[in-house]
Amino acid sequence: MRITGLLCILLLLAGFRVAPAMQPAMKGVGLPAVASGEGSEEEIVITPGDIGPFCPHQLVSGDREFSGHGPKVNISVSLVNLKNQALAVHIEFDAKETQSNWSEVKGSWQQVIYRAPAGKMIAGILSGSASYVRNYICPAAEADLFGCDGPVLKPGVDGTGPVKEIRIVGDTSGDDISDDDDCTCDTRIVKIIFLPVKLKLMPVVNHR
């Protein structure tokens, strides 16, 4: 028997345990990823610029003339978070003559009003996100005052936001419902003016 083997037997009899050889540690294996804590979430307030005009030309019924009978106007404006990368506004418009032959026009649009900065994502809309104009009756246009156009009106706005004011033209002195994207002397949204909008931003998470 070799001396080394004899020494091990003597150590075991004396109550000593021989430790196995240590294995080198595997860096990063089986360890959970830990956030750095940099770039935490933040809340910001933006005031989007005015947008418009918007020209509806989808004829639903009747002819293209309201003939001084309204129209009755309904509008909805809502904020949309587009894949956490951009904030858009979605607009629905309807104007309908208040008596026969019930001429009616609709229109819908979507427009980006804010984009998240590089490295950030829009995690939520914290302020009011929907505004409405409900059943607003437009007055008849007077040709002597407005030529072929009609008066610019400011109907009351309901809802939680984001709209401060909507300016529209209802009845005009010519054909009211456009058949193209040229809103000259036609029923239209002239301008949408916004309230401040509060957003939550967070860092973009890169999955590796």
Helix coverage percent: under 10%
What amount of the residues lies in strands?
Answer: 35-45%
Estimate the global geometry from the Cα principal axes: elongated
Q: How many DSSP E strands? A: 12
Total of DSSP H or I helical runs spanning 4+ residues: 2
Backbone structural class: mainly beta
The average pLDDT is 85
Major β-sheet strand ordering? 2-5-4-3-7-9
How many domains in all? 1
- Which parts are unreliable, with pLDDT below 50 for 5 consecutive residues or more? 6-13, 16-37
Terminus-to-terminus distance: 57 Å
Task: Let me know the largest β-sheet.
Answer: 6 strands, antiparallel
N-to-C SSE string, H for helix and E for strand: HEEEEEEEHEEEEE
What is the CA-atom radius of gyration, in angstroms?
34 Å
Explain this structure.
By secondary structure, the chain is mainly beta. The protein has one domain (about 40-205). It contains two helices and twelve strands, in the order H-E-E-E-E-E-E-E-H-E-E-E-E-E. The longest helix has 11 residues, at about 5-15. It starts with a helix and ends in a 5-residue tail after the last strand. The model is unreliable at about 5-15 and about 15-35 (pLDDT under 50).
Write the layout of secondary structure elements.
Blueprint: H1 3-13, E1 42-46, E2 58-61, E3 72-82, E4 86-96, E5 104-115, E6 120-125, E7 130-137, H2 143-146, E8 152-153, E9 158-161, E10 163-169, E11 188-194, E12 197-203
Antiparallel strand pairs: 1-12, 2-5, 3-4, 3-7, 4-5, 6-12, 7-9, 8-10, 10-11
